[in-house]
Amino acid sequence: MKVAVFGAAGRTGVEVIRAALAKGHEVTAVVRDASAVTEENVTVAVADVHDQDQVTAAVAGVDAVISTLGGKPRQPTSVYSDGIVKITTAMRASGARRLLCLSTGAIDQSKTPAMQRFVQGIIVKLVFKYGHADMGKMEAILRDVDDLDWTVVRVPGLTAKAATGKYRVAPAPLDKPSMIARADLADYLVSALDDADTSRTIVEISN
Q: Are 69 and 100 contacting, i.e. CB atoms less than 8 angstroms apart?
């Protein structure tokens, strides 16, 4: 499968590229700066996610898109909501149908233990409130998309630990979520490319 990875220069994006290559996929790394891509055997597409023409060009010819986009946590952002509009528009133009993108488990903490919920609430309010709000907009936009096979993957938190190969995935919200290694998240994202059961759903992943 030909897969475009947005946010490919980020820590999660790099893990996704590695996982996709390991499973035999052809990867296009979509970045703003080509020099940021150090992985071998990938096609590099330079695009600003806010530029429709550049995003459309980056997605041309691919079968699926994995978005690991992220913004600066303490600054207002529209990278998630505007980015998803640009990506889905580009996918329609190219004929690609499968889309996986990341969101935050903090959007729904109804099954999160009370103390963890309290701490996460403080962190979101002080550090991630802009990204949190824009991820909510992104999810709302995707709920109205009925012509693409999208899956939103909510993540409670990420670590740089080695992959374990063991993680839980279920329709959000997930019971007692905990942080997960980026490598495990990447493994799931790549494996879910062929998972029709998660089409047009919001899932959560956790250890």
A: no
According to the 3-state scheme, what is the secondary structure of 139-173?
HHHHHCCCCCEEEEEEECCEECCCCCCCCEEEECC
Amino acid at 88: T
Q: Cβ distance 21 to 46 under 8 Å?
A: no
- Within 10 Å of residue 98's Cβ, how many Cβ atoms? 22
Domain boundaries, the chain: 2-206
Nearest partner of 204 among 190, 191, 188, judged by Cα:
188
Task: Tell me which DSSP letter residue 192 carries.
Answer: G
Q: Name the residue type at position 108.
A: D
pLDDT at 120 over 70: no
Residues 6+ apart with CB under 8 A from 167: 180, 184, 185, 187, 188, 205, 206, 207
Task: State the burial class of residue 131 (Cβ atoms within 10 Å of its Cβ: 0-12, 13-18, 19+).
Answer: buried
Query: In the CATH scheme, what architecture does the domain 2-206 have?
Result: 3-Layer(aba) Sandwich (3.40)
d(CA 143, CA 29): 26
pLDDT bracket for residue 131 (50, 70, 90): confident
Count of beta carbons in the 10 Å neighbourhood of residue 17: 28
**CA distance between the termini of the chain:** 27
Give the integer Cα–Cα distance in Å for 81 and 34. Answer: 24
pLDDT tens track for 19-56: 999 999 999 999 999 999 999 999 999 999 999 999 99
